[in-house]
């Protein structure tokens, strides 16, 4: 584990982790590393291999596609899961807006992580469904 | 040692101050001096060497120096095989470590490593004010003011090379009774003892390896399963030198390796009682032990820097840094040595840089020195011009033999810039994250990468009109990236950049 001792309390307040008990969260954070990004740094890079699954602890970031900012991510939001699940490079940059603190799981560990935490996987699926729904509404 | 103990740099104002005298500080002051940058170096120690004057406890390094590699010890290509020597420009000061080792192992002993650092400092004439302990920090206008045991120092730029070697213990009830790394007794005093080690990183397995022939029972416990470097194909995980306890556990020799959280540590008579909870099924198991050792990690002794706005992260409390190792939240505060691992880089496939180890941060220090020269001292370090026909061979030669790329994969890159006025310029070694994230003229950067499964492979990044594209090449069984496949792929990726007209702009 290389995360600070306040990470469990922060994650406990996020929807994605809402079904997990504190002991479960204690064990879960052992899998993550903590990362910190300066304003303007890219966390995911459009078209680059080897990305990971990130959860924002503090701060905000923008989703940038071909240089155009599309939307903003905040504490509790997560990103990188599509790239990790499909084994393809991200289709967008994620760029820090001001200081950004995250936890990160390497991409090749996401499948095992989700299978080991089915309630969390369901929450993540709900999140994907919401993203798909809002994208469909936006396109219609 | 006379040169080193003259007490240079009295309190006062300097353009740059370096705090520390471990390998990170030594490499940086050497590189700053070579570039002609006026600076002071202060250290609380009495001689060069930093943590290697005391640690590793069991007296041999984890980083190797291979005496026989087919390359001359003074050559740049040899640095790939020598993880421990500091970097010098003068031939006689390069590759010092193999000449100081007794040949019994390719891992230097701690005294050999310390001797290597002292020898480097002596031969290159490094000047350090020893016995000067940094205690407080405040701001005065654009300056940092360092309060030390010798008085106050002012500087607009301070580089902290103070290591990540302060033992850290998590908030587990009763853990204050446990012995920390650095407080251990001599190995033989653990004869016939039951030893409980908390932590499955290298320090925990280093202790277990040293006690194998002494302890009656060794339990190694933490919630996460043991990772081994031979499986991760990186420096993540327990190094092969310390894997013997894993085999002992597998063959039921008396070592127990447990994936469990530690609920509490208590005393019972003359013994400890350690209560654990299995990470998979939550089953509680209690162990009796004669000694409990907390190998639970280390933090960086940053003193009051967080109060000045230096943001830190992770269990190690590393300062958050830009790609050029400047505090991301307190400009002017830089870091050198193993603290540089707080500048994460791309971390592709979850694999960190080697900035926590000498073989990684010695190159960072050289890059940082050039960056400080150009951004803070107004010194422009010359760059070589290139003909278009030279670019592909240069990049592939660097991928095959460039030690910076081998030791700092996906982290440092060799860069060639297309300057609109001057043509093609060899920009030298640059942090890859700076190249990919912070814009600039059209350019190409080559690095080596690993994915945790295959052999290393070259990765080329091309920046055109501000947009950076990634071009991965295949691994090669002999790690030779200069053959036709690599030439064709590199030429194809650089075709736009290397149009024939460019060569006419070169001299």
**Could you name the CATH topology of the largest domain in chain B?**
FAD/NAD(P)-binding domain
**In this structure, how is the largest beta sheet of chain A organized?**
6 strands, antiparallel
Evaluate the radius of gyration of chain A: 15 Å
Shape of chain A: globular
| Strand arrangement, major sheet of chain B | 8-14-9-10-11-12-13
Proportion of residues in β-strands of chain A? 25-35%
Top CATH class of chain A: Mainly Beta
Separate helix tally of chain B: 11
CATH superfamily of chain A: Jelly Rolls
Average predicted confidence as pLDDT of chain A: 91
Q: So, CATH architecture of the largest domain in chain B?
A: 3-Layer(bba) Sandwich
Give me the secondary-structure category of chain B: alpha/beta
Count of spatially separate domains of chain B: 3
Mean pLDDT of chain B: 93
Low-confidence stretches of chain B: 1-5, 501-507
What is Rg of chain B? 24 Å
Helix count from the secondary structure assignment of chain A: 5
Key features of this structure:
heterodimer, A: 140 residues, alpha+beta, Jelly Rolls, six-stranded antiparallel sheet, 5 helices, B: 507 residues, alpha/beta, FAD/NAD(P)-binding domain, 3 domains, seven-stranded mixed sheet, 24 strands, globular, disordered C terminus
SSE layout and pairing:
The complex is a heterodimer of chains A (140) and B (507).
Chain A lengths: L6 H6 L9 H7 L4 E5 L4 E3 L7 E14 L2 E6 L4 E2 L1 H6 L6 E14 L3 H7 L1 H22 L1
Antiparallel strand pairs in A: 1-6, 2-6, 3-4, 3-5, 3-6
Chain B lengths: L15 E4 L3 H12 L5 E3 L67 H14 L10 E7 L2 E6 L2 E5 L1 E4 L5 E2 L11 E2 L13 E5 L3 H10 L5 E6 L6 H4 L11 H7 L4 E14 L2 E8 L5 E6 L1 E4 L3 E2 L12 E2 L4 E2 L13 E3 L22 H19 L7 E3 L1 H14 L1 H5 L4 E8 L3 E9 H6 L5 E7 L7 E8 L2 E6 L11 H11 L5 H4 L4
Helix pairs in contact in B: 1-6
